[in-house]
Amino acid sequence: MLITVIKRDLKCVSHNLSSSVQPIGFFIIITSLFPLAVTPDPKVLQGIAPGIIWISALLATLLALDTLFKEDFVDGTIDQMFIVANSLYVVAFARIISHWLISGLPLILMCLIIAFMLQIPEHSLDALIVSLLLGTPTLSLVGSIGAALTVGLRYSGVLLALITLPLYIPVMIFGASCISADLIGLQWSGQAYLLAAMLVLSITLAPFATAAALRININ
Known about the structure:
Structural class: mainly alpha
Mean pLDDT: 83
Radius of gyration: 18 Å
Order of helices and strands: HHHHHHHHH
Number of helices: 9
Number of strands: 0
Helix content: over 70%
Shape: elongated
């Protein structure tokens, strides 16, 4: 059932590319505007690049969260999935994986281009990729809880942001710190371990919390 739901989501994306391209386009626009708004000076850009990338990644992930469960909730697809799988945990976990594959993974690939535009040196690309590989799945996992809690609301964007943004702050801080430490020649493994710990904790708890929130809305 897990693989079936993921395949279905990816197939739906192929028929509706606008919904998946929107967060990536938002990420590219935000990161591209910063050098124009602040300064093109390489030293200044290099210093603020970690914050720019992580704030943009956070907001792009948040933009894609509102539709994580809403369309399937409105047309009754989640009810049917629950009947077939007999477990909202499987449905929730599958949708979270799909969300990351659609919005998080392309974002990481785009960062390789954005990094050079923001004057991030090649030796710091490892820290950039590792921080995003560990951090963006956590954003999807934690954000799914807020998306499930607000799935029954017609206009849930603001409330969803209020629920998820405070939970995103630790991930953003350690993700940006991971890159910043490498830029100034310090070890960044400590920040990476903390991001990995957050990811493990999120994988353990977030799907259960998301499933519980969906069950409340279904009942």
